[in-house]
Specification:
By secondary structure, this protein is mainly alpha-helical. The chain has one domain. Helix content is about 75%, strand content about 5%. The protein is globular, with a radius of gyration of 19 Å.
């Protein structure tokens, strides 16, 4: 349990910090930016962590699969903690000195986790974290400007995709980690956990693009949008089962993902309308 305390403490502190941001700003813009930065973090993690094996986390929260346990650590550290700080920097218009301070702070936390043996590098280095965060924090300030003012079509679609992806990825992958409701076996990696999460990442990247495209089409009957979405998700799941990639382990698994697709269409539509409004 020693390992998990550090990650849970980090999660608690960042949750409190984000609550502080919401209280101070009293609008939904910080939430939209947080989801945008989580979506960006997921894409970065998919590349360097899931596919390139940059590092491993050892929170010892999940016992059954070591890669799933590492995925939880990556979520706490990179897919939540970093986006919260990026949101803080952007919404309070902190200057480059603060970017350097927070980048150094995270490098220090990473160094501490290495010394505590609750995190390990493979080919990754501390310097990559430092310089990468400077860029990540700068991107957050750019995205925030897009959120608080009217966007062009490219800016709007990129924000919508990242926000949709952050929700879709979380809702798709977290049940797999904690409930083992399904796993994927495309055969890309020998480790079943890594293989499963890698395919799930590609799945969410594709379905997020689908949701964004669907809500921006002119549907005469809204019920048809939900019917097509739910039916297509069911068909895709059945196809993946038939070719041996998807292994559904719990009775509610496929109902959940069909229901999730319908919820994602609803949420994507809400975000699409929200982003279309000039603040």
């Amino acid at each position: 349990m020693h390992n998990s305390y550090w990650y849970l403490a980090l999660l608690l502190l960042d949750t409190l910090l984000f609550c502080f941001i919401l209280i101070k700003k009293r609008n939904m813009q910080p939430l939209l930016l947080l989801l945008t930065m989580i979506g960006l973090a997921y894409i970065i993690e998919t590349i360097i962590f899931n596919f390139l094996g940059s590092y491993d986390y050892h929170p010892k929260i999940i016992k059954h699969f070591s890669f799933y346990d590492s995925e939880v650590g990556a979520f706490v550290s990179n897919a939540f903690s970093l986006p919260v700080i990026a949101t803080l920097i952007a919404v309070f218009h902190l200057n480059w000195i603060w970017k350097i301070i927070f980048s150094g702070l995270f490098v220090g936390i990473e160094w501490l986790f290495l010394k505590l043996h609750i995190y390990e590098h493979h080919w990754w280095k501390l310097v990559y974290t430092g310089f990468g965060l400077l860029g990540y924090f700068s991107i957050a300030k750019m995205f925030y400007k897009w959120i608080i003012q009217p966007q062009n079509r490219f800016q709007h679609n990129l924000l919508l995709y990242l926000i949709t992806g952050s929700i879709s990825a979380s809702a798709h992958i977290l049940p797999m980690l904690f409930f083992l409701n399904r796993f994927y076996r495309p055969g890309w990696f020998e480790n079943i956990g890594r293989d499963s999460i890698a395919f799930a990442a590609i799945f969410y990247l594709c379905d997020s693009l689908f949701y964004c495209g669907m809500v921006q089409m002119n549907w005469k009957f809204k019920w048809a949008l939900y019917l097509v979405t739910g039916l297509l998700m069911f068909i895709v799941n059945q196809f993946l089962i038939s070719v041996g990639i998807l292994h559904s382990r719990i009775w509610w698994d496929q109902f959940y993902y069909v229901g999730l697709s319908l919820m994602m269409i609803l949420l994507t539509g809400i975000v699409d309308r929200r982003l279309s409004k000039a603040s």
